[in-house]
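Lecture notes, continued. The same structure-token format from the folding unit now serves as the input rather than the output. Read the line below as a description of shape only.
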């Protein structure tokens, strides 16, 4: 009876020690990070619109509120989203995500968006980062973005 208690104590103590070593040695979280664009995710404006430039210079990036025309709570490449930027609500299109993509679609270091006006036209005149080629097949809504894009990956 006491031998089982000793074994159980050793096992629990050993797992406790390994968790402490992992915590102090690696100083990283053991949970997976969230890589999707979801509600309240901070985004990066990659066009040259004055509103986007000013928000990024002030260090107050836009945050996502809602994914338009979708039941999903997460935004993916090419989705139209509603964002707040400098106290205003604007529509935007996601042109790059940190999330793992399928084959031949690039993965970015940040979640990138292009701001749109009420009619669906881009607010800026240039997109400053490369755009995935996969957006070319998304339909007429993306044709305006493709026209102002300078680089494609």
């Amino acid at each position: 009876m006491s031998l089982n208690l000793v074994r159980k104590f050793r096992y629990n103590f050993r797992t406790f020690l390994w968790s402490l070593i992992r915590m102090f040695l690696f100083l990283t979280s053991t949970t997976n990070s969230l890589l999707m664009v979801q509600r309240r995710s901070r985004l990066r404006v990659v066009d040259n619109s004055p509103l986007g430039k000013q928000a990024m210079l002030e260090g107050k990036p836009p945050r996502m509120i809602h994914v338009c025309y979708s039941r999903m709570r997460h935004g993916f490449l090419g989705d139209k989203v509603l964002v707040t930027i400098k106290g205003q609500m604007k529509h935007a299109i996601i042109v790059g995500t940190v999330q793992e993509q399928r084959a031949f679609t690039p993965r970015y270091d940040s979640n990138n968006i292009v701001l749109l006006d009420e009619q669906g036209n881009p607010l800026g005149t240039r997109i400053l980062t490369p755009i995935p080629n996969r957006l070319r097949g998304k339909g007429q809504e993306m044709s305006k973005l493709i026209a102002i894009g300078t680089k494609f990956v």
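Point for the exam: Residues 87 and 133 are 32 Å apart (CA to CA).
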